[in-house]
Amino acid sequence: MTTRPRRLLALAQLANSVGDGAYYTTSALYFTRVAGLAPVRVGLGLTLAWAVGSLVGVPLGRLADRRGPRGTSVLLALATSAAVGSFLLVQGFVVFVLTACLYASAQSGLAAARQALLAGLVPAGERTGLLARLQSTLNGGLAVGAALGGLALSAGTAAAYRGVLALDAVCFLACALLLVRLPQVAATAVEPAAGAAKGPHLGVLRDRPYALVAVLNAVLLLRLPLLSLALPLWITERTGAPAWLASGLFVLNTLAVMLFQVRVARAVTGLDTALRVLRGSGLVMFASCAVFAVSAGRSPASAAAILVAGAVLQVVAEMQQSAGSWQLSFDLAPADRMGEYQGFFGTGVTAARTLGPLVLTTLLLGWGTPGWLLLGALMPLAAYAIGPAARRADRRRAAERDDVQGAEQPELVA
After folding, report:
1. What is the domain partition of the chain in residue ranges?
2. What is the reported pLDDT for 260?
3. What burial letters (b/e) apply to 73-95, b meaning 16+ CB within 10 Å?
4. Burial 162-177 (b: 16+ CB within 10 A, else e)
5. What is the DSSP letter of 92?
């Protein structure tokens, strides 16, 4: 693969992540202050939308397998742009929910289709490394977008909030234009797979080993609402640390991923190394949770130092988990149904973001230190359980390849 497709993939990632960063920091206030929706209704609508998005991710991934991931990615990027633009017209709850469902569905499908596109463009041994670089790009884009969103928050006007949504829509339009510019050689390499239409409908749900790996990985992804929701509440309610430290920990996380995700991913080269890194991630995450628990009731300086130490451990675990899960999600999926399988694997992110806030607030704010330790203990348990499931999935893929090769062998004539 030449450098131009890699550069286009990175620029497309940068474009939509800048828009996402601005959207994430301002959308809640836009929906409540400008669109006039009650906060409870905003939360309910977004939960419903992401639930729908998690359901349609698999069929949209299968569409990428049947119709080609490049074209599907472009269409879904355009659909996301249209959905964000439609938020500017939202006046009532029903329209908001319908628009949010379109947004979440397009985002979920786009993630699956782009993973399938990357799998078709990049040799198997190079995918995790490229994903690490794209993750670094994504974090950089989120930081830029968040800064732009911060300007809108400072202005606090309806025009500023609408400007952020317009920016997000333009960013996804730019993402689509970048994806469609992939060179013709790269595009023909990822034409719809000949066997994609022959498999069982949503057959990934029947692939129990792969499904189990995806579910266990979703447990590890409970870390996602930690920095954005659980830690800010923990800091203000259970520690003496200043509230602004929550923002500082988010910046620390973003910078660490930008600087070190590629380096961490270099250690992952196959199934064995992916499982080893995932097990390490579970143990480090347990240590992180234990450190966070110790911060309760401490003085401001002591609590701040402990929280920073916990955040450092957390981002190490995050980078390890990301690298290991990327490798497994590709290696354990059949090559001719990559979009469908990536769509299913990606529902773990949606599930974690949907259920994570309730789980984390109950465990951490409701139970305190025991809740932190229980959350921490779940991580190595899930990480170690992935090993047997992944090896079963790997044996299944090997058996399928042997069957295909056997069918292709010409019969001997006596």
Report:
1. 3-195, 205-402
2. 92
3. bbbbbbbbbbbbbbbeebeebee
4. bbbbebbbbbbbbbbb
5. S
For helices 271-294 and 369-408, the axis angle rounded to 10 degrees is 170
Per DSSP, the three-state class of 244 is: coil
Of 306, 307, 317, the C-alpha closest to 256 is: 317
Instruction: Look up residue 283 and give its two tokens.
Output: 């143990």
The helix/strand/coil state of 133 is helix
pLDDT digits (tens, 9 = 90+) for 49-103: 888 888 888 888 888 888 888 989 999 999 999 999 999 999 899 999 999 999 9
- Cα distances (Å, whole numbers) of residue 82 to 14, 59, 71, 379: 19, 20, 17, 38
Can you give the pTM of this predicted structure? Answer: 0.78
Whether the CB-CB separation of 42 and 177 falls below 8 Å is answered with no
Integer Cα distance of 207 and 397 in angstroms: 10
The span from the CA of 369 to the CA of 395, in Å, is 41
pLDDT in tens, 292-341: 999 998 999 999 999 999 999 999 999 999 999 999 998 998 887 888 88
Domain 3-195 matches domain 205-402 at the CATH topology level: yes
* Cα 286 to Cα 372: distance, rounded to the nearest angstrom: 9
Integer Cα distance of 101 and 105 in angstroms: 6
- Rounded Cα distance, 66 and 115, in Å: 15
Nearest C-alpha neighbor of 103 from the set 125, 122, 126, 78: 78
Phi first, then psi, for residue 80 (nearest 5°) are -65, -45
Instruction: Look at the block and give the residue holding tokens 């994609």.
Output: 196
| CB count in 10 Å sphere of residue 222 | 23
Distance CA 399, CA 363 (A): 42
Is residue 113 within 8 A of residue 76, CB to CB? The reply is yes
**Domain 3-195, what fold?**
Growth Hormone; Chain: A; (1.20.1250)
CA 198 to chain CA centroid, nearest Å: 29
Q: Which two tokens stand for residue 279?
A: 């097990």
* Contact partners, residue 414, CB within 8 Å, separation at least 6: none
Cα 197 to Cα 62, 192, 206, 340, 387: the distances in Å are 9, 9, 16, 11, 31
- What tokens appear for 287 in the block? 């240590």
Phi, psi of 299 (to 5 degrees): -70, 160
| Closest to 311 (Cα-Cα) out of 379, 219, 228, 369 | 228
Integer Cα distance of 406 and 408 in angstroms? 5
Which architecture characterizes domain 205-402 according to CATH? Answer: Up-down Bundle (1.20)
